Amino acid sequence: MGGDHGPRVTLAACRAFLERHPEASLLLVGAPDALAGFAAHPRARIVPASEVVGMDDPIEIALRKKKDSSMRVAIQQVKDGAAQAAISAGNTGALMAISKLILRMGANLERPAIVASWPTMQGVSAVLDVGANVESDAKQLIEFAIMGAAFHHAVHGSERPTVGLLNVGSEDQKGHEEVREAHAILKDTKLDFDYRGFVEGTDIAKGTVDVVVTDGFTGNVALKTAEGLARFFGAEIKATLTSGPLAMLGAVIASGALKKMRRRLDPGRVNGGPLLGLNGIVVKSHGGADALGYASAIRVAVDLARSDFSAEIDRNLKRLTETGLNAGAQEEGAGGVSGAEGQGASE
Amino acid sequence: MGGDHGPRVTLAACRAFLERHPEASLLLVGAPDALAGFAAHPRARIVPASEVVGMDDPIEIALRKKKDSSMRVAIQQVKDGAAQAAISAGNTGALMAISKLILRMGANLERPAIVASWPTMQGVSAVLDVGANVESDAKQLIEFAIMGAAFHHAVHGSERPTVGLLNVGSEDQKGHEEVREAHAILKDTKLDFDYRGFVEGTDIAKGTVDVVVTDGFTGNVALKTAEGLARFFGAEIKATLTSGPLAMLGAVIASGALKKMRRRLDPGRVNGGPLLGLNGIVVKSHGGADALGYASAIRVAVDLARSDFSAEIDRNLKRLTETGLNAGAQEEGAGGVSGAEGQGASE
Which domains, from first to last, does chain A contain? Predict the structure, then answer.
């Protein structure tokens, strides 16, 4: 039912998506009244849901009380095979919890991850986890590397993604035990991507690697720090270029170029953060995304659904198992929703 | 002997500092030949040191082999009471290790922290730890809060600093155990600052609080992510405003305002990251700082030396002890240098 702006934005995005993709069809899940505009559309079907998960709803409420929420019904469509992917601009924690409960973790994967597509000097990098977890051990970091590489390949088109592990320095002995252990294993295992070792915070915007792997706490803080700084820059540029008649004249003259720049740096341009690691595709749109941003999230879901994303993950996990690391992964992971979600990141 | 640019930059900064502060005097530590320009200065004294710690020297070499390094001799001046503070633009890991070995931790403090002065929409916030440690427990986070508040008060002049704990959400149950435990204690202890609870990455640039507290891994990644993004923005602005004749004309007309903006956002403007928690003042300048930046690091050292920084920390630690938390802190901390430094952040 559509994030911060309600169905208005998401429905505009859905309409634009259907126009641009004559081969695709959409299930629109929610209050039939709000979706009535699509009742006659030949490639849209309305799936009624009587409840809505609020942006501030505790996860327990979303999970145990609102069993007919649009979010839950949408994810159920994926589980039942009626849809190939679910897209939501709603409450991240609830989306994660409901997705884990209904879809369960993928075979041999321990923990899900939320991946962010980050504009860089080189293009777009995938950064994960940015908030599904608050702590990650070495094995989980390696899973993130595998999932992130498969995601970048599927959605951003890199042939053989380069992958780096986020750390506070580039030497082997830097960082805490988890990153050093993950580093040692990634260095010594042949996988479908090009592991480049440790990278630092400065490397993210530089685009040093296609995939930046980190735990959900650090990734969430890094992403939000960057978002905050981007807003600060935006405000400063605006203030600067309206600070006097000369600056304003300059800004008017350069306005075309400045607009282009803002578009290039706009996180909404690459909106759509999939929840990786589940048995099914779920894509989180930024709650504040506009129609263009929400359409970009739908496109990410389509790209993932069309790719051999899951097969690629399976193949790499198998190689890990052959090196002896992955044994016993499923034991802990398959239990679905644990109490830990409440500690995860808010959007 | 002066960071990436060698003594040229640091000596220019020293000369400017002495001119602007007729009451201050400097000890210049290093190869006498390189410092000869100051031989006749009435308020400068040359302290000879025969060795230099290289930017890439392993900590063991800096610590055990180069016992007559300019870095070590400078810190020894503080220990001996000949200087009130030491300033260095050299190897961060070595500076931290030598400082801990020679000055030791302050009474009842467990771990040192490096603090960054971060330009925000409101002014300047202190963010710590940005790289002295790779992991921090609740007690260490609380120490960082105390030290950061005393620093902000001494150097950035806030009367009663506001302090926030960096997390992935603002609700009490968010985040990992360490931040939740530190949060619970800070909420319930009356200290010389205004604890505002959890803050998120977006709050840093917004300037929501004067002091942002986090572990050294997260803080280092956040700082470097921001530095990388700032460079990306700088490059984009330059590329945008030289992208065509119209944009160039606009840029020329607005150049005064743009220059002012760049100065405001420049991290060098607030250069100077003290190593907090030691028995003595040591300030790390950015290795790549220019003379203006290095002079700013000297000013930070002066502000700290003139303040009641240490007394403020002691007072707050005492209040913590009264609430029962701080008992036994010294046992582990006083041992000086442990093997853990090698895992810390590089600059």
Answer: 113-269+308-325 (3.40.718.10)
Q: Does the complex come out with an ipTM higher than 0.95? A: no
Query: Mind listing the pLDDT tens digit of every residue in chain B (347 residues)?
Result: 666 777 888 899 899 999 999 999 999 999 999 999 998 999 999 999 999 998 888 889 999 999 999 999 999 999 999 999 999 988 888 999 999 999 999 988 999 999 999 999 999 999 999 989 989 999 999 999 999 999 999 999 999 999 999 999 888 888 999 999 999 999 999 999 999 999 999 999 999 999 999 999 999 999 999 988 888 888 888 888 888 888 888 888 877 777 777 767 665 567 788 999 999 999 998 877 888 888 889 999 999 999 988 999 999 999 988 876 544 444 443 333 333 444 555 55
> Of A73, A116, A146, whose CA–CA distance to A273 is shortest?
A116
Beta bridge partners of A346: none
B residues 222..251 contacting A (CB < 8 A) = 222-233, 235-237, 239-241, 243-244, 246-247, 249-251
| Beta-carbon contacts of residue A166 (< 8 Å; ≥ 6 apart) | A179, A198, A199, A200, A201, A204, A212, A213, A214, A218, A219, A222, B221
Structure tokens at B228: 């990388």
Residues in chain A, total: 347
> What DSSP line would sit under B313-342, residue for residue?
HHHHHHHHHHTT-STTHHHHHTT---GGGG
Question: Do A342 and A58 touch, CB atoms closer than 8 A?
Answer: yes
The answer to whether A13 and A294 are in contact (CB under 8 A) is yes
Contact state of A232 with B257 under an 8 Å Cβ cutoff? no
CA distances from A69 to A29, A52, A61, A334, B166 (A): 9, 5, 11, 24, 32
Which residues numbered 191-220 in B keep a CB inside 8 Å of some CB on A? 200-206, 214, 216-218, 220
